[in-house]
Write a structure and sequence with these properties.
Layout (H helix, E strand, L loop, with lengths): L1 H13 L3 E4 L6 H4 L8 E10 L5 E3 L4 E6 L2 H11 L4 E5 L4 E4 L3 H5 L2 E4 L5 E7 L2 E15 L4 E14 L5 E7 L1
Parallel strand pairs: 1-6, 2-11
Antiparallel strand pairs: 2-3, 2-8, 4-7, 4-9, 5-10, 9-10
Length: about 170
C-alpha cells in the first residue's frame, strides 16, 4: 500500500515525467578543463525538417557545449539512447534525480543566429556534447498551442588532427 501511494505521489508531482537516475558521480575536477582557453573551434547549424518538408531553425536558441565525462555519458545515453547523442521530443518530460547544479554551469554557451548557425571559439582540446533545441508552434487555437520539435545533441571531439569541427544538429 505504501509503495503504491508513494508511486502515485511521485507520479503526480512529476506530471508523468520519465524519471532518470544517474549512477555516475559528477566531478567538477573532471570538467574544469573546459574553462581553459584553446585555439579550437566548433561551428555548426541546428535545424529540423517537418513532415511537410519545411525547415525549422534553432534561431535565437541557446547552444551548449558540455564536456564528455562518465556522468555526462550516462546522462546523454539515458536521455537519447546513445552515448553519441540523438533527439528528444520537446513534449517528453524528463526528470533527472539528483542532477548536480555544477553540471550545467560547466559548459560553454552561444546562440544560434537567424540562419540557425552557431560557433564556439577558443575551445581547449577535448570531447564535447553539443546541444540545442528546435521548437515551433505547429498549430495554435484559442485554448491550445501544439508545439513540435525537440532537443538535438551530438558528441564532438576536438583533437590535434581535427581542431575545427563542423556539426549539423539536425533531424
Amino acid at each position: 500500500m505504501f509503495k503504491t501511494l508513494s508511486f502515485l505521489i511521485i507520479l503526480s508531482l512529476t506530471g508523468c515525467a520519465r524519471i532518470i537516475t544517474i549512477n555516475s558521480t559528477f566531478s567538477e575536477s573532471d570538467t574544469n578543463w573546459i574553462l581553459k582557453n584553446g585555439n579550437n573551434k566548433i561551428t555548426g547549424q541546428g535545424f529540423m525538417t517537418t513532415v511537410a518538408g519545411d525547415i525549422k531553425l534553432c534561431s535565437g536558441k541557446v547552444v551548449k557545449a558540455f564536456p564528455v565525462t562518465a556522468y555526462s555519458k550516462e546522462r546523454i545515453s539515458s536521455i537519447y539512447g546513445s552515448e553519441n547523442g540523438g533527439y528528444s521530443p520537446f513534449t517528453e518530460k524528463i526528470k533527472i534525480t539528483g542532477a548536480p547544479s555544477g553540471y550545467k554551469t560547466l559548459a560553454k554557451s552561444t546562440i544560434c543566429d537567424a540562419q540557425g548557425n552557431f560557433e564556439f571559439n577558443n575551445l581547449p582540446f577535448g570531447e564535447y556534447y553539443v546541444q540545442t533545441r528546435v521548437v515551433w508552434a505547429a498549430s495554435v487555437t484559442h485554448y491550445h498551442t501544439n508545439w513540435q520539435g525537440g532537443y538535438i545533441t551530438k558528441r564532438v571531439a576536438l583533437t590535434k588532427k581535427t581542431p575545427v569541427q563542423k556539426v549539423l544538429l539536425s533531424l
